[in-house]
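Reading a protein record of the kind used here takes only a little practice. These numbers are not coordinates but entries in a learned vocabulary of local backbone shapes. Here is one such record, which you should read through line by line.
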Amino acid sequence: MRLRRLIVLFLACMLFLPAAAVPQPPQQKIYIGLIPEMNIFKQKQRFKLLGDYLSKRTGIPVEFTILSRYGNILESFTAEKMDGAFFGSFTGALAIQKLGVVPLARPVNLDNTSTYQGYLFVRKDSRIRSAADMKGKKMAFVEKATTAGYIFPRAYLRENGITNIDSYFSEHFFTGSHDAAVFAVLNKKADIGAAKHSIYDRVRKEDQRVDQELVILAKSPWVPSNGLCVRKDLGADIRKKLKDALLSLNTEPGGKQVLEQFGALKFIETTAADYKPVFDMAKKAGIDMLRYNYRNE
């Protein structure tokens, strides 16, 4: 009887002891998503050296995956168990709000800015020079989950009294990437286009028709360039390695070549507070981000 009481007492005490920490297996790979802001082959080339560099600096293979659409990045981030993503400013704002991701760093562009603008542009020979002139024309957006390619033009139109784009334009469509929106206007498949200024400028350097045939009608406020955000439960040591590697890239041997291919001068720290202009623009566009359907119909 005494032995039975001791056993019962021992089991009761065990219930109140803290559970032993279960050792976590070492991280085998760092899986990072990319939004399809430009032609997929150009984007793969742009990130190749950066992936090699981050793999070397962290000691863990870094794998980039380019998503087929902007609109599925939040679902893919969770479903495919990504460790991080180079979110656009709008998808980054959504991910901060809905998933609690942690921003680490963002690039400084070749023009020495770490932000970008949205452009609204038309052909010079279109005679479109205002929102009123756009009535009955064809509009090329990028994706519903982009700041420059959708949120900004919707805010611009709303500020000019246009709330129903279905009835205002003869047609509107989504190109899927920023460079495709520029070419849609260049090739007369659309009368008006929207795109981020850095991609517009890339196309401009490669195709002289941009300067010759297009004119920019409006520019958005500046928003943070596509930054690396990681899942909130990523190990602190890995998070630090990634952040330190990016922030020191411009001082590392071989870093200049990586940055040249990526199209940046360096990386700087970014925080959730940097996304405030995005939230402000969404409000001007009449968008409730918690309820927003960011998938294209």
The radius of gyration is 23 Å.
